[in-house]
Amino acid sequence: MGEFRIGRGDFELDGRPVRLLSGALHYFRVHEAQWGHRLAMLRAMGLNCVETYVPWNLHEPRPGRYEDVAALGRFLDAARAAGLLAIVRPGPYICAEWENGGLPHWLTGRFGHRVRTRDPEYLAEVERWFRVLLPQVAERQYDRGGPVIMVQVENEYGSYGSDQVYLDRLARLIEECGVTAALCTSDGPEDHMLTGGSVPGVLATVNFGSRARAGFETLRRHRPAGPLMCMEFWCGWFGHWGAEPVVRDAADAAGALREILECGASVNLYMAHGGTNFAGWAGANRAGGLHDGPLQPDITSYDYDAPIDEYGRPTEKFWAFREVLAAYADGPLPELPPPPAVLGASCEAVLDEWAPLDAVLDALGDEEQVGGAPSSFEELGVDRGLVRYRVDVPGPRMPYPLSVRGLRDRALVYVDGNRAGVLTEDAPVLPEPVAGPARVELWVESLGRVNYGPRVGEPKGITGGVLHERQYLHGVAARGLRLGAFSMEGVEGVRFRSASGEGGVGLYRGSVSVVGPGDAGLSLTGVTRGFVWVNGFCLGRYWGVGPQTSLYVPGPLLRSGGNEVWVLEAEAAGEIRVRLE
């Protein structure tokens, strides 16, 4: 068995100095059948290590209900088979532009700002989760014949808090769960971040996209000894709905990478391959320097302008990085693996069935809850999806403005069955006053929970109340429609009708005939915002505001012949057309 250790100036592997040339690749953003190809692409770029986060909320959607926790272990086995070392960043908070920063909605709904602190009840939940998760990491450590050489404690904690007691307890907990691999932290190269986020006796690393020498100088003021490492070299960036895509020049990024390596440091490319925010797991940010401004939902693609694009193809940045990294390789770099299969011919889906949202809710929705004030998504147990709120305006009374306080994030409103408008957090008042008596329905959609900054964990739904003039309306009924309820078996229970001439919001179902299955892009016209499934697999959210105009369809999802397609339109639709190409 081998040995990996942190020396005074270098990492050491089996007694020899080693430079970690790592790349971020998240197993949960890549179809499992494509892990091998993407890992081989990392090797071909010149990397010797892969890094991944672990999203707690993906694997424990409800307290004590675990879903495919073993996926991490299978990914680490695939990394070993590809000849790569591995760094695991289990959180419990990960950021990652992922829903709620990876924290389960039921956890933040219960503890609020007690998360990410020494709070004993919160730490008890973390311990329970880590004792389920971390044994598979411990079993795959380098000294046991596996690829895992390092495990990270929390994530960029200095950007959030200063609870050193919490960080120390977290580090000890990781060790108690059988992890003997090296521990590390990662933070921005600023004094307050390093003092808030580092742990005595644990390797501190820094995250940045440029100015490596300045960043490492700051790190050295805090840690005079130990290997230098940029745990996140931001070689690209993520995108928001309604904003221009962010692109970084390949030569500029390669120059910044070269500077890191010239400093004698190790590096982790963030991202080497971004992948996709399938199934509505994309997070959101708050604008402004204090990350407390308007909501900025993340797009479904996590291409990240990475050197390996969303489809697994090498980009100009890939070749520029490969040239830089080749100078640090022990020998010639491996050739690229054969490219994935691509769709043999473009084709169009026929959506011939439609069900209104009420019918979908009747078949797939949770039990309705009625209370004085509206329940939040967290109180209803809804992680991703929509909630229908219903409330009566008493009467007789004259028309008054109807508004929603604490709306997160977007509501399609009906008054007595007639569409009355769309409300948002920044525009929470209906354009026309409402007279009583009247029945008001509000279909509220979460656009992604905040993944970074002081508002991580903020609740979704109607978090204040529904007001008529200045008076709260009470007796609000709420019923959740979770994305997780959309299974092949579940959708069979929906009462569909012919889609001919219907249009509007609701669930559309149809099929597409494929010749030559392979990777494809799915584009839609005649829609506003919603979600798409292919053969029961949720590709993620679409939204006409852009910049993303098509959704990535992994080739392994498709089969020759007929393939089932569902489109859940949440706001407005005309004649919908779905095309694979």
From TrEMBL:
Protein's UniProt keywords contain Disulfide bond:
no
- Domain Glycoside hydrolase 35 catalytic, chain residue ranges per copy: 11-327
The record's section on InterPro entries has: B-gal_1-like, BetaGal1-like_ABD1, BetaGal_gal-bd, Galactose-bd-like_sf, GH, Gly_Hdrlase_35_cat, Glyco_hydro_35_CS, Glycoside_Hdrlase_35
Alphabetic keyword roster: Glycosidase, Hydrolase
Give the positions the UniProt entry annotates as the active site: 156, 232
Look up the record and give one Gene Ontology term from the biological process aspect: carbohydrate metabolic process
Tell me which residues make up the Beta-galactosidase galactose-binding domain.
507-563
* Residue span, Beta-galactosidase 1-like first all-beta domain: 374-474
Q: Has the keyword Hydrolase been applied to this entry?
A: yes
Family named by the database record = Belongs to the glycosyl hydrolase 35 family.
UniProt protein name: Beta-galactosidase
The species is Streptomyces triticagri
